[in-house]
C-alpha cells in the first residue's frame, strides 16, 4: 500500500485533480475542503504527507499548520496562490516543509511530494531498523558507518549521504534533482551536471560489484537507483 496523503484544498477541481494524479502514482490520497476537517482527520488517522492550501474557508492554512505542529511532525507542503517571499517565509517558519505556488506544474509538485516523503522515511530510524544491508554492505543508520564483509570502509560525508539516500529509496529510483537537493543544495540551482557525474563515478568505483552486479545503476533521463536488494535490520 502507498503512502497516505491528505489534501486540504477548497477548490474542487484542484483537489480532485490532485487526488487522481497521486492515486495514479501509487499513493493513497484523501481530500478535504477545510482546515477543521483536516485537523479531525489527523486526530483519528496516520498521514505520511499533508498538501495544505493557505487560503481556506475558516481557519487559514497557516493557522492549521501551526496547530498540526503542536502534535505531529508529518511533512507539510503548502500549495497556494500567494507566491511572495513574505508568505513563503511565514509558512516555513510555522513548520511547513516546502512551498509550491499556483498555477503549478504537476510534474514539479509530484517531485516535491516524492522528495518530502523520502526525507521523512529516511529520518524514521527505529530500534527495529538500525541497519540497511545490501550485498556485502551494511550501513549503520545512526553512525553512517559503512562496512563490507565486516570491515569498516572510508567514505566522504557526501558519499555516505548518497549511499544512504539510494539504499533507503530502493527499489525506487532517485532523480538527479532530489540527489542534488538532499546531498548538495536544497534549491538545486548551483551544481553542475559534471559534478554529479564525477561523484557518482567515484562512488560506483568505490562500491565495486557483488556477484557480478554493480551496486549503483544509472537510469537514463531520470537519475540513479540502488541495484541490489536492501533489507532493514
UniProtKB/TrEMBL annotation:
GO cellular component, one term: protein-DNA complex
Molecular function terms, GO-annotated: phosphorelay response regulator activity; transcription cis-regulatory region binding
DNA-binding stretch(es), residue numbering of this chain: 129-228
Keywords from the named record: DNA-binding, Phosphoprotein, Transcription, Transcription regulation, Two-component regulatory system
Segments forming domain Response regulatory: 4-117
InterPro entries: CheY-like_superfamily (IPR011006), OmpR/PhoB-type_DNA-bd (IPR001867), Sig_transdc_resp-reg_receiver (IPR001789), WalR-like (IPR039420), WH-like_DNA-bd_sf (IPR036388)
Transmembrane among keywords: no
Function: May play the central regulatory role in sporulation. It may be an element of the effector pathway responsible for the activation of sporulation genes in response to nutritional stress. Spo0A may act in concert with spo0H (a sigma factor) to control the expression of some genes that are critical to the sporulation process.
Name used for this protein in its record: Stage 0 sporulation protein A homolog
Native organism: Fusibacillus kribbianus
Amino acid at each position: 500500500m502507498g503512502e497516505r496523503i491528505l489534501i486540504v484544498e477548497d477548490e474542487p477541481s484542484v483537489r480532485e485533480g490532485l487526488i487522481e494524479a497521486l492515486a495514479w502514482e501509487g499513493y493513497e490520497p484523501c481530500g478535504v475542503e477545510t482546515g477543521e476537517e483536516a485537523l479531525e482527520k489527523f486526530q483519528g488517522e496516520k498521514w505520511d504527507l499533508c498538501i495544505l492550501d493557505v487560503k481556506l474557508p475558516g481557519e487559514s492554512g497557516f493557522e492549521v499548520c501551526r496547530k498540526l505542529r503542536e502534535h505531529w511532525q508529518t511533512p507539510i507542503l503548502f500549495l497556494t496562490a500567494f507566491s511572495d517571499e513574505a508568505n513563503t517565509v511565514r509558512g516555513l517558519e510555522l513548520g511547513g516543509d516546502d512551498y509550491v505556488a499556483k498555477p503549478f506544474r504537476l510534474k514539479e509538485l509530484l517531485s516535491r511530494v516524492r522528495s518530502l516523503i523520502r526525507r521523512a522515511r529516511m529520518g524514521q530510524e527505529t530500534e527495529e531498523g538500525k541497519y540497511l544491508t545490501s550485498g556485502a554492505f551494511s550501513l549503520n543508520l545512526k553512525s553512517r558507518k559503512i562496512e563490507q564483509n565486516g570491515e569498516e570502509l572510508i567514505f566522504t560525508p557526501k558519499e555516505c549521504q548518497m549511499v544512504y539516500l539510494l539504499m533507503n529509496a530502493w527499489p525506487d529510483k532517485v532523480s538527479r534533482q532530489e540527489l542534488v537537493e538532499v546531498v548538495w543544495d536544497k534549491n538545486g540551482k548551483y551544481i553542475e551536471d559534471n559534478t554529479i557525474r564525477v561523484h557518482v563515478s567515484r562512488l560506483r568505483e568505490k562500491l565495486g560489484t557483488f556477484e557480478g552486479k554493480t551496486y549503483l545503476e544509472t537510469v537514463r533521463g531520470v537519475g540513479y537507483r540502488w541495484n541490489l536488494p536492501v533489507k532493514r535490520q
